[in-house]
Write a structure and sequence with these properties.
Layout lengths: L3 E4 L2 E4 L4 E7 L9 E6 L6 E6 L6 E3 L7 E6 L4 E6 L8 E8 L13 E4 L3 E6 L1
Parallel strand pairs: 2-11
Antiparallel strand pairs: 1-3, 3-8, 4-5, 4-9, 5-6, 7-8, 9-10, 9-11
Length: about 130
Amino acid sequence: QVQLVESGGGLVQAGGSLRLSCAASGRTFSSYTMGWFRQVPGKEREFVAAISRIGNSLRYADSVKGRFTISRDNAKNTVYLQMNSLKPEDTAVYYCARRKVSFAGPTIEVEEYDVWGQGTQVTVSS
């Protein structure tokens, strides 16, 4: 069973930066698109970014374009989310996820991902 473990969250002032990491267990990491999502209490989980299995195709939510960068290191079974110019509205629990279908490209639909990490809290103060 694949497990995903996020790290790197914390408290940061507006305008600051954080780098989230998501480490995956197992030997099939490079076969799957990986995504980052976020959720605040009372709201649905929302798409942030996704990266294809070899990193040649990326998708971003409009709200983070130009500020966040998703990347992956298949040798380390890890996907990253570099977050710059953070805003208070970026405050959320951030989750990484693995797409259901191997060799499929990035998608924004949350229901297309079936393996999730436990989440890491990101808090941006104004």
